Fold this protein.
Amino acid sequence: MSLLLEQYNQVRLHSEAICRPLKTEDYVVQPVVDVSPPKWHLGHTTWFFETFILKPHLAGYTEFDPHYNYVFNSYYEAAGTRVIRTDRGNLSRPSVSDIYNYRRHVDEAMQTFLSNGFHADLQELMTLGLNHEQQHQELLATDIKYILGHNPLFPAYADDPVYNGSVPTADKWISVDGGLYQIGYNGGGFCFDNELSRHTVYLQPYRIAAQLVTNGEYLEWIESGGYSNFVYWHAEGWDWVKTQQIQAPLYWYKIDGEWWNYTSAGLQRVNGDEPVCHISYYEAFAYASWKGKRLPTEFEWEAAAPHFNWGRRWEWTESAYLPYPGFKKAAGAIGEYNGKFMVNQKVLRGGSDVTPEGHSRITYRNFFHAPLRWQYTGIRLAE
């Protein structure tokens, strides 16, 4: 078995393993626009390989269902029309069993394709497809948490929490000298196009926290009245707090005077030593302001990342999501992957407890709109 075929099989099986604890009804729910039903993720990642690998490159391949292009195309304008994102939860068909049959159909064809040899030019596209499915594995985990976490029964996803253990709470800082730093991916392996091209930036001297902000530290901010004091907030963030009546991180509930939060193990008391999670950029900025600190830029984060542990929370930065010097979009539908989203978003760095192993790296650039917090987002301070 080739290494690429082995990687393909591992990635595909892991997506299904994430869904194994679900009931059939869980696969269909879409509580909000940012959350996609689990069955849609399973279908979309399959559609990617069928559309970009099998249909154009495997002679004699028979499409599973011609209508699936309309159902499982996400945002690729070049690939044709598609179901509006908000309507994904209205699709009772195709059924969950239909989608698993679809996956088996495509997987069998991919076994043939990868076993018989293919042009070296497709290696990069195949690797992109695997990383694309890994991105959706993280989204699967976060979307499942949102679906179950907004069920009034607060059902457990698994026996054990996704995140466990604790982190030190000591206030330790890492000092970084000012000067020129190289930013962006540099190596022979895979990276996304938004990590290129590698370029030089100048940074002023700064300090960055060695640890993420914890639940206990964030609770101090809540109890100090942080959500009721406009002084710490951007105007847009303050409007968001008032309009949405935000009083705590997503999944936090105050019950009989005590804070609880929804986890993969169900409703649990808030662990003060855990890194705070599921907060928006607005909240991260306001908390930093309350502490008399700020959020790091993405360049400051990357320059310092070799000196601290990262990967438990996607970390908000103060950087807008913009192209690097020399950035170029690929031709065709694949060129719609990252560049089209470079507006009105903030960069997150690092990874999270539900990021597939080996998927993230120091140069990886995630991006979300400022009010979003269903992802595993946290805070690292700078000054």
About this structure: Residues 168 and 273 are 7 Å apart (CA to CA). The two ends are 51 Å apart (CA to CA).
